[in-house]
Amino acid sequence: MPDQTAPNPQSEDAARDLARRIQAAQTPDAKQPRPFIRSRGLKIPKHPQLTTGRIRGDLRNGTYERKECDAVMRVVREGDRVLELGGGIGYMSTLLSVKKKVAKVVTYEANPSLIPFITKVHCANGVANVDLRNALLTPAGGAPVPFHIRENFLASSMDYDAEPDTVVDTVSIDQHAIAPVIDDLTPDILVCDIEGAESDLLPAGDWSGLRAAIIELHPQWIGPSGVRAVFDAMHRGGLTYFPKASEGKVVTFRRAW
To answer: What is the domain-level CATH number for residue 154?
Structure first.
């Protein structure tokens, strides 16, 4: 009578083969490209222009827009209402929604080429509380203005003369007056990165309802007088420079600290 306790080579081979199949089914194919870059717990869809080179590295390392992100994580609270000027690739509005669980974000982004990608970022992360507006927020509003699309999306701007040979299209962008937007949203937080327009726009707003503001300054374009104009606008709103959440050109203002 055969020994019932003796190992069965055929059964062991079958078990090993089954285990390999299960592991293969659970392991993503290394040759299959991953559609997202993971960054600070967010999923950022890959894009041939917007998520390459240094931006891709910063996203993967969690250092993309690090100074602004650090400030936001420090001063924003759950349930806040946020006005974001300069939507970029949708990273900040997604961080605010997913990580800080704000009640609402109104985001202004003038570059129409970025709007589809921002929407993809929001969808990838289940963001549904961002009001994304492809328009310019200006002191008094007015008629639509020309915006020049360039081969490099991120270089698109209202300045045609900067790189006229790279312009591939020109579109009209609406202008929204700042006062009604503030009155309607009543924001608790302002996040602003508008490439030098801060010195003209921010003095036109009533910021007395804010609890905090995070602003990236561009002194190379606005100069000392523009920097003073931004600080004066915040001071008129009752906000004071907050050094613990400021770094370099990213300055934070708070009402009480």
So the answer is: 3.40.50.150
- The one-letter amino acid code at 33 reads P
154: helix, strand or coil: helix
CB 221 within 8 A of CB 196: yes
Task: Give the number of other CB atoms < 10 A from CB of residue 38.
Answer: 12
Which residue type is seen at 177? Answer: A
Residue in the structure block whose two tokens are 């030098």: 196
Look up the domain containing 186 and give its range: 65-254
Give the CA distances from residue 209 to residues 110, 205, 233, 237, in Å, rounded to whole numbers and listed in that order.
Answer: 25, 11, 13, 8
- How far is the C-alpha of 83 from the C-alpha of 36, rounded, in Å? 27
Q: What are the structure tokens assigned to 237, written together?
A: 């709103």
| CA pair distance 167, 151, nearest whole angstrom | 7
Residue 24 lies in a domain: no
Tokens of 51: 């998520």
Q: In the chain, how many domains are there?
A: 1
Paired with 205 in beta bridges are none
Confidence of residue 17 (pLDDT cuts 50, 70, 90): confident
Tokens of 96: 């605010």
> Pairing state of beta strands 189-192 and 167-177?
unpaired
Task: Tell me if 147 sits within 8 A of 172, measured CB to CB.
Answer: yes
First to last CA, the chain: 86
Sheet holding 167-177, edge to edge: 135-138, 167-177, 142-150
Tell me the per-residue pLDDT of 48-98, one tens digit each, with 9 for 90 and over: 989 999 999 999 999 999 999 999 999 999 999 999 999 999 999 999 999
Decide if 37 contacts 51 (C-beta within 8 A). yes
Position of tokens 């081969």? 151
